[in-house]
């Protein structure tokens, strides 16, 4: 059932509180399949991908350039801090991280600080 739904890296546990053999082998298979199907129907499907968590520090005058660049790279903003400088933490797919950094530095004429903080799994759904 999980293969049919094209799910991977997932486990499904179905617990029946009534034992016995009254359903027969086919009935048990149908009951467990139905339980798994019900669980999949109410579950939230996640699209996990390896991501880079990127810290950015930029002047207010350059901040307006960032949203368009972020949309090009499917970047997700985790946090924004508006103090003396704008500080952001974003997630971007790992394979796009270096290109994102290049684009940010080019767009801001080098007047931006961008650091990859860590690599981790992230839900891009």
Polypeptide structure, described:
The chain is 33% helix and 30% strand. The protein has 125 residues and is α+β, with helices and mostly antiparallel strands. It folds into two domains: 1-45; 48-123, Alpha-Beta Plaits. Strands 2-3-1-4 form a four-stranded antiparallel sheet. The protein is rod-shaped.
Strand portion: 25-35%
Number of helices: 4
SSE arrangement, N to C: HEHHEEHE
Task: Specify the CATH architecture of the largest domain.
Answer: 2-Layer Sandwich
Please give the radius of gyration in angstroms: 23 Å
Q: Under the CATH scheme, which class of the largest domain?
A: Alpha Beta
Subunit organisation of the chains = single chain
As for the CATH topology of the largest domain, it is Alpha-Beta Plaits
> How many individual domains?
2
Structural class: alpha+beta
Unreliable runs? none
Fraction in helix: 25-40%
Question: What are the key terms here?
Answer:
single chain, 125 residues, alpha+beta, Alpha-Beta Plaits, 2 domains, 4 helices
Q: Could you give a short description of this structure?
A:
This protein has 125 residues and is α+β, with helices and mostly antiparallel strands. It has helices spanning 24-42, 60-63, 66-72, 97-107, and strands at residues 48-58, 76-82, 86-93, 112-123.
């Amino acid at each position: 059932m999980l293969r049919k739904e094209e799910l991977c890296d997932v486990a499904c546990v179905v617990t029946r509180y009534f034992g016995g053999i009254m359903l027969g082998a086919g009935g048990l298979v149908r009951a467990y399949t139905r339980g798994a199907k019900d669980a999949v129907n109410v579950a939230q499907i996640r699209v996990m991908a390896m991501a880079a968590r990127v810290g950015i520090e930029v002047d207010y005058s350059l901040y307006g350039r960032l949203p368009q660049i972020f949309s090009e790279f499917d970047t997700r903003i985790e946090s924004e801090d508006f103090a003396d400088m704008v500080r952001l933490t974003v997630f971007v797919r790992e394979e796009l991280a270096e290109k994102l950094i290049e684009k940010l530095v080019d767009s801001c004429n080098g007047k931006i600080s961008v650091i990859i903080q860590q690599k981790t799994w992230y839900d891009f759904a």
